[in-house]
Amino acid sequence: MNGKTTAPHTNDARIRLLLIDDEEGYVNVLANRLEKRHFHVTKAYSGSDAIRAVRGQDFDVAVLDLKMEDMDGLEVLKIFKQMGLEMKIIMLTGHGSQEAATEGLTLGAFDYLTKPCELHDLIEKIQQACRA
């Protein structure tokens, strides 16, 4: 955050992941599955929750849903970029919105996946983002 490196700086060097989606059940299940694979997951159930979270701590990667109730993922992505955050952002799109995903890439997202995605595909994309 604010120009700092995005390398993990916790003692166990786990990837610090911010998971942002307004489908609470989906977030909780996915967070549990990722934590079992040694990710440090912070959950945000809205765009405004995510913005509060990044003000309080640094993350390596954010997984951001494009379609949310309070603000859409592109709006959240723009705010993150304006804040100068260096974390990589992977967008999830479940509504066939290839256009929105492409716009997200233009705005600086690392990549996107179509929801629902396989857990191993998401983990691979998160790991790629950390290496980039």
- Under CATH, the topology can be stated as Rossmann fold
Number of helices: 5
- What CATH architecture label applies? 3-Layer(aba) Sandwich
Instruction: Kindly provide the name of the CATH class.
Output: Alpha Beta
Task: Describe the protein's architecture and organization.
There is one protein chain. The protein is of the alpha/beta class and 132 residues long. It has a single domain (16-131), classed as Response regulator (Rossmann fold, 3-Layer(aba) Sandwich). Helix content is 41%, strand content 19%. It has five helices and five strands, in the order βαβαβαβαβα. The chain has helices at residues 24-35, 47-56, 73-82, 98-106, 119-131; strands spanning 16-20, 40-44, 61-65, 88-93, 111-114. The chain has a five-stranded parallel sheet, with helices on both faces. α2 (47-56) runs parallel beside α3 (73-82). The chain is globular, with a radius of gyration of 13 Å. The two termini are 17 Å apart.
